[in-house]
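Possible regression after last week's pipeline update?

I re-ran a chain I had predicted before the update to compare outputs. Posting the input and the new output here so someone can diff against the archived version. Not blocking, just want to make sure nothing changed silently.
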Amino acid sequence: MSNTAFVSIADLKRGRSAVSAILETAASGGCSTTGGEGKASCGSSDGPADMPAEIWEKVKNHPCYSEEAHHHYARMHVAVAPACNIQCNYCNRKYDCSNESRPGVVSAKLTPDQAVNKVLAVASAIPQMTVLGIAGPGDALANPKKTFETFRRLQAEAPDIKLCLSTNGLALPEMVDEICKYNIDHVTITINMVDPVVGARIYPWIFWQHRRVTGIAAATILHRQQMLGLEMLTARGVLTKVNSVLIPGVNDAHLIEVNREVKKRGAFLHNIMPLISEAEHGTVFGLTGQRGPSAQELKAVQDACMGGANLMRHCRQCRADAVGLLGEDRSEEFTQDKVDQMEIVYDLEKRRAYQQQVEIERQAQQVAKQAALDAAADTAANDDIAVLVAIATEGQGRVNQHFGHATEFQIYEVSAAQAHFVGHRRVDLYCQGGYGDDEQLPSIVSAINDCHAVLVAKIGACPRDELTAAGIEPVDAYAHEFIEGAALAWFADYRARIARGEITHQARGDARIRQGAYTAAASAA
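New output (post-update):
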């Protein structure tokens, strides 16, 4: 007998009705779940005009649910959930290195009391921290007592902070009421398959009804629970993000079907992220030689899913104790011993005032973007040129980082009509204590070799020459300008140089070749 027998027919009807409403809204041109080309879809880079007011309120300062917000607002995770009820071949929670960023990794596990104290400390020191999530190091819902005690306390003591949790979905249906009780209106479910045959290659076992289940039987139970939980959350108005790990040769082409199925059930966002499979992490996939995807392969699968559930492309695969903006980790500033010594003053009005200033900066970014779009439209040519541009940024939505200090580049697809964020590329640090490590340059160039330009605040002569030789234009003319405006201005100049015959446009990289294979798979499906 399944332990989801308590789920009523009314619950299911309510869920399916809510899903239908979402899809009807998308079809009418409102808050779209399509994620396709043209009009942006809810949750990526949208603004208040693109969605209902109640949805905008939920996502406008959530760095995971809004690509634009992640430039300005921070999040933190508290590690109060150590146990897990499934085993994934890509996961190993035993190892921790302060320099790595991957799910399931923590430096210390916390009690609910310690977690609440840490949240208040971080919120006092980082007023743009707007979101608190419980993402492990195990599964939030496999540790319900610790998880919900933390949320209960925070709901009372930090009422302005959004509450989120991440789960594999196995225990989700029976926990939906508890999730709604504490106003947890953002839930992430990791869904890597909708075919149990594929799932059996990813999950060795699950712990279900007091026993271990393996193989296809385990994947079948997990799949059923995930789909049911997703429908139930949609019925209750909870925004859901689906995470999927792209595993080449296992579920890469299959993720197109996953995208389609989670959209049917009302998923707000679909985050397709790369497998982390270095052998030193000790995972089954890492130790058996399963490779992760290249950045170009990841983009190709994401692009092939366009037209399905709206895509999140700015994920950083955060640690379960991450603190700060996406792409940075300030957790070392808030270790338990440091928090114990801090004088914590949770000033709600001060936090609100700071965030109002953030919104002023954000509006300035939108104005700059629109001005650049208007200027591009005035000189529009009859071509369909679109190129990728890499951006070095420290946040705030600006080109404000030295090339040598970058550990990742944000990638934008730029045309005369838009500058659209499509992902990020992690790279090795070039600058090592005042000098450049030239041995790192080939790997950095390889990471962005499908880009036509890289926009930076500053760049040295050696990397400038190396990038130029590789056909990537280094650009520091737009230092400290807003990203979209800078990218569009560079593109207008690029197109003008083509028109004058100074340069010839050439396609770069092999991403389109890879994308073709996945697009063909999507059509066949």
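Follow-up from reviewer: compared with the archived run. The first helix runs from residue 9 to 27. Marking as no regression found.
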